[in-house]
Write a structure and sequence with these properties.
Mean pLDDT of chain B: 96
Order of helices and strands of chain B: EEEHEEEEEHHEHH
Number of helices of chain A: 9
Distance between the termini of chain A: 43 Å
Oligomer: heterodimer
Strand content of chain A: 25-35%
Number of strands of chain A: 21
Structural class of chain B: alpha+beta
Strand order of the largest sheet of chain B: 1-2-3-9-8-5
Number of helices of chain B: 5
């Protein structure tokens, strides 16, 4: 039995093509995935991401708890509403999950974790809170009473569309810098996203999600499926948990060194392993020069040895196939490498791991 | 709803087959297949002159979502490929029965007659 988000009926009413996405019955597209992708780059689209799990932390030890729990440093969160992207590691330095932490007050934080990892994340957090004897209460907000829906509205026109639908929130959210959140009445509105475009992620009581979805649709926001969400995040060079990294992969080998605060004295779970192992691989982009489509798990042949594609697809913005890949140290941006696609070695160019943002190709 | 023309034969692996007057057959993927794959972005065609056993991988169609093999619906030799479909993969989404992929000379024409008819293929597509 697949799990359903509160917007399941709305997707079916729009004739979405539904797929089993990690045990969730989710829309992959509502027609053309490529058109949905372009809608987000050029105008405005929305995604049901209610399968992701908000987790509320309350208590006097929120900061010391998070400081030990994740590889990024919550000391960077000094202004109320600020968000931080962070990896939660195991003792071996592998990534249990990547998550966004919103700082509300010193006794109240909100975290959003991935759908497929929510149960193990919660169990890990609870175990650590008990082990460290911290005063922190951990409450998931996805299932059961007081659950939340999440709608991501993304694209150059996303802000204006949300102001139109939620005029009472405009004053609080109009000037939100990227990676901030504001609470307005029952709405939690964040300027975060997973597309490389401006926009908001709106968390709201689950029983209001369908009315919000329909109001946004009536305002001209294009419903977009998880298919477009994947090509948008790939173009933006954003990692996907389970594909680009998992519990066996160090954040240093997954392009996440920028989220790992190693230098100061602060200890966190996995730090000793990261210090001992260092960086073993590089996480870079590829653009296929021959015809074909790059996909996860394809082998990459370089002068320095073999690497592997972690995520690949066709880029609607570049009109070429692109990928994120884990490559040997020594491979340089601009190098030409070969990718084994069904036994044929095709030429690809090594790039920075970002391809398009804010409506434009960046390669 | 997908379109299943009654003048064609079908393989359960979602290829359609049209018998031509010259003894060759034309092969493409069904409307159901293109719809399930979504926006196609790459088509890899077989080589003219190559011989394939029935149910062997003969071509590849890739959408933004996934790669899918196309199987030889019958044993035979490739006589012609539709480069226009490879140059514009979206043409297969627009009309899967106009944008054929390749032509074959069957080893045995009776193999074509043994393929699924439209009603039988519709049942396969509905179950998928």
């Amino acid at each position: 039995m697949l799990k359903k988000t509160v917007l399941n009926d709305a997707h079916r009413a729009l004739n979405a093509r539904m797929v089993d996405f990690g045990g969730w019955d989710m829309p992959v597209n509502y027609g053309s995935q490529i058109e949905e992708h372009h809608a987000v780059r050029k105008d405005c689209g929305m995604f049901d991401v209610s399968h992701m799990c908000p987790v509320d932390l309350t208590g006097t030890d929120c900061r010391p708890f998070l400081s030990r729990l994740v590889a990024n440093d919550v000391a960077k969160l000094t202004v109320a509403g600020k968000a931080l992207y962070a990896a939660m590691l195991n003792d071996a330095g592998g990534v249990i999950d990547d998550l966004i932490i919103y700082f509300l007050t010193d006794t109240k934080f909100r975290i959003v974790v991935n759908a497929g990892t929510a149960e193990k994340d919660l169990a890990w957090m609870q175990a650590k809170a008990a082990e460290w004897k911290m005063d922190v209460t951990i409450t998931q907000r996805r299932d059961g009473a007081n659950n939340l829906g999440i709608i991501a509205v993304q694209g150059p026109n996303a802000r204006a569309k949300v102001w139109q639908v939620l005029p009472q929130a405009k004053a609080a959210i109009a000037e939100l810098k990227p990676f901030f959140a504001a609470e307005v009445d029952q709405y939690f509105i964040a300027s975060t996203g997973y597309t490389g475009e401006d926009g908001y992620e709106i968390m709201l009581p689950a029983n209001e999600a369908e009315a919000m979805w329909n109001a946004l649709k009536d305002a001209g926001v294009a419903p977009c499926g998880l298919g477009a969400r994947d090509t948008l995040r790939l173009e933006a060079g954003m990692n996907l948990y389970g594909q680009d990294m998992d519990e066996t992969v160090s954040p240093l080998d997954a392009g996440l060194a920028w989220t790992v605060a190693m230098k100061d004295a602060r200890d966190f779970v996995g730090k000793a392993a990261l210090t001992a192992n260092g960086q073993q691989k590089q996480f870079l982009g590829l653009i296929l020069l021959d015809k074909g489509v790059l996909r996860g798990h394809q082998q990459v042949v370089t002068k320095q040895g073999n690497g592997e594609i972690t995520s690949g697809s066709f880029s609607p913005t570049l009109q070429q196939s692109i990928a994120l890949a884990r490559l040997p140290l020594g491979v340089a941006i601009g190098d030409e490498v070969e990718v084994d696609i069904r036994g044929k070695l095709l030429k690809a160019k090594v790039t920075k791991p970002v391809f398009a943002r804010n409506g434009k190709a960046v390669q | 709803m997908s379109n299943v023309p009654s003048n064609l034969k079908y393989a359960a692996s979602h290829e359609w087959v049209l018998k031509n007057a010259d003894g060759s057959v034309t092969v493409g993927i069904s409307d159901h297949a293109q719809e399930a794959l979504g926006d196609l972005v790459f088509v890899e065609l077989p080589e003219v002159g190559a011989h394939y056993a029935a149910e062997k991988e003969i071509a590849v169609v890739e959408s933004v979502k996934a790669a899918a093999d196309v199987y030889a619906p019958i044993a035979g030799t490739v006589t012609e490929v539709n480069q226009a479909a490879a140059d514009a993969p979206e043409s297969v989404n627009a009309d899967a029965y106009a944008a054929w992929l390749f032509k074959m000379t069957p080893d045995n024409m009776a193999d074509v007659d043994a393929l699924l008819d439209a009603a039988a293929y519709q049942a396969v597509a509905d179950a998928a």
